[in-house]
Design goal:
This protein has an eight-stranded mixed beta sheet with strand order 2-1-10-9-11-12-13-14, with helices on both faces. Strands 17, 18, 20, 21 and 22 form a five-stranded antiparallel beta sheet that branches. It is built from 17 helices and 28 strands. By secondary structure, the protein is of the alpha/beta class. It is globular, with a radius of gyration of 23 Å.
Length: 568
């Protein structure tokens, strides 16, 4: 697996899409009758045909040019999924600019911190201007530093003149800056070219087996996240029908996602693992008429894949025609544009049941019977997608054999150019054409298996303890919200598990004691402390991932609102 990545066979965007820049493939999509439909939680529809999106993008490009935006300039966008947002995004690409999509605040109380973070990111990428949803215009005005113009999606969409001439950006020009999730540190901006983005999109289309005439992809994923953005870019470039929902509408009414899958006869969807748990629970608790028989791919990625969530979803969905082989595990990261490994369409998801004791760096992941004491069920994420090479390496960078646990290294035609204006961080992860992902895993004949994050690993008495295991067991205790964080204290072999108490449960000390007892019984090693926190206390990234490192910092500085603590 050490050959030159350029010699590896993989689909090329010029062959699959007919173009190698986003603006080019949008103009080709505009020649079809298909497009995007934006829906809310009630599934009210706002159609946006690709032909209309292309015209609107040319007009937005003109409006951005009036604001002084030229080729290569960074255009930051803050908006939820809407027609106006999509016009602004593709308008930036049509004008040769580089969009940088930034996350929205989670709560009104987050607004001051949100503005400070927006300014920090604007400065980091040296953004030429900021485009915001109309609802944020008045609030943001006057609070943005650097003298940058603040434009709204509405005023850009109202532009009547179109930009003329060929798209100014070329295939190898910078196309996008994707901020990483920041689970283990401050977010960094991943720099991607048009060719890199569209190559990964082509690879995804091939592995998922999309059909231009009948494929329908439904997604609620935020478009500031790589999985959401590449899903939309892939669907547009391949010219299939897309149905998009704002993420906050899904979170307000998770049933609406499944309702959309049924109503629009979706053939594919992609979501993080927790969403499938919510969807399965909703189908069980709120029975209704649904038809999920058209689904061929239910991609599961972006966080650890839990068997309980998928089993709940598949069991509830089977009543409505869902086929078990539709469940498709995925592994990827922003530094590789997105996709690295993916299940093969039509092949049932496989679980690798291994001894938790054997999941040590350099050790062999030893298969055990399902349900055996100390067993851990890990999803097999499938083989690398076309053109991508994966190796598992030890601490010295030497490749390991199958089933040996080590760090996942990736070589791909879609690897980032580097982190924006951060050569030191780039050099730490990129070398000789390979990316050090920071993820632990191993290879099996059936494909890649991911264990966890290297930086999150907790080492006690020479044993590797996976925080995901502790968080998963804690979250199953009654009175615990599915938001937990397990972390080690620096320069010690002490571990803490923090959880958020569920609404209506005030017996925090009792719940913490039960969590401690369950962890000891099920994992064989109890943490040194279990702490109960109020809702929203555990810090998370913009995409919802727990920030264990930041949680540890706040615990040590006394900034966590601890309501009860139980020690071993």
């Amino acid at each position: 697996m050490n050959g030159d990545v350029d010699t590896v066979d993989h689909p090329r965007p010029e062959d699959m899409f007919g173009g190698v820049t986003v603006a080019e493939v949008l103009e080709l999509a505009a020649t079809t009758s298909r497009g995007i439909t934006v829906v809310n939680r009630q599934l009210d529809q706002t159609p946006l045909p690709y032909a209309l999106l292309a015209v609107g993008a040319r007009r937005v490009a003109r409006g951005l040019a009036r604001a002084g935006v030229g080729k290569g300039d960074r255009v930051a966008i803050v908006s939820s999924t809407s027609p106006g947002f999509l016009l602004s995004l593709f308008g930036a690409w049509r004008g040769g600019a580089v969009p940088v999509v930034l996350p929205l605040p989670h709560r009104v109380s987050d607004l001051p911190e949100f503005v400070a973070e927006i300014n920090r990111r604007l400065d980091h990428v040296d953004a030429r201007c900021l485009v915001v949803a109309d609802a944020f215009g008045d609030f943001v005005s006057g609070r943005i530093t650097g003298g940058r113009p603040v434009l709204t999606c509405g005023e850009l969409a109202a532009e009547r003149e179109e930009i003329t001439g060929p798209p100014p950006a070329g295939p190898d020009d910078l196309a996008y800056l994707q901020f990483t999730s920041g689970t283990t540190g401050l977010p960094r901006a991943v720099a991607l070219t048009h060719r890199q983005m569209l190559t990964n999109a082509a690879v995804c289309c091939e592995r998922l087996g999309l059909d231009r005439d009948r494929s329908v992809h439904v997604s609620w994923l935020p478009l500031y996240h790589d999985m959401g953005l590449i899903s939309v870019l892939s669907g547009m470039a391949y010219r299939i029908t897309l149905v998009l929902q704002p993420p906050e509408d899904f979170l307000a009414r998770p049933d609406s996602w499944v309702d959309a899958l049924s109503r629009f006869r979706a053939t594919s969807t992609v979501a993080p693992n927790f969403a499938y748990g919510l969807a399965g629970q909703g189908m069980r608790l709120r029975p209704r008429e649904l038809d999920l028989s058209a689904l061929e791919v239910c991609g599961d990625g972006a966080e650890p894949i839990r068997a309980a969530n998928l089993e709940q979803f598949m069991e509830a969905g089977a009543v409505h025609g869902l086929r078990p082989e539709a469940m498709t595990p995925m592994y990827g990261l922003a530094e590789a544009t997105l996709a690295v490994a993916m299940g093969v369409k039509g092949r049932p998801l496989e679980w690798d049941h291994v001894s938790r004791e054997g999941l040590q760096a350099g050790a062999a992941a030893r298969p055990v019977p399902a349900g055996a004491p100390g067993a851990r069920a890990l999803a097999v994420c499938g083989p690398p997608v076309p053109g991508v090479q994966v190796e598992i390496r030890d601490e010295d960078g030497k490749p390991l054999e199958h089933r040996r646990v080590g760090e996942i290294w990736v070589r791909s035609p879609s690897l980032m150019q580097g982190y924006w204006e951060d050569p030191e961080a780039t050099a730490a992860v990129l070398g000789d054409g390979w990316l050090r992902t920071g993820d632990l895993g191993y290879r099996t004949p059936e494909g890649l298996v991911v264990c966890g994050r290297v930086k999150d690993m907790i080492i006690v008495a020479g044993r590797n303890l996976y925080p995901e295991d502790y968080e998963h067991v804690a979250a199953k205790v009654e009175g615990v919200r599915p938001v937990c964080a397990a972390f080690a204290l620096p320069d010690t072999e002490r571990m803490v598990v923090a959880f958020e108490a569920a609404k209506g449960f005030d017996n925090h000390a009792e719940i913490a004691a039960v969590v401690m007892k369950r962890l000891r019984e099920q994992l064989g090693h109890a943490p040194d402390a279990v702490v109960a926190l109020k809702k929203g206390a555990i810090p998370r990234t913009s995409s919802g991932k727990v920030q264990r490192g930041l949680c540890r910092e706040r615990y040590l500085s006394g900034q966590l609102p601890v309501m009860a603590e139980t020690t071993r």
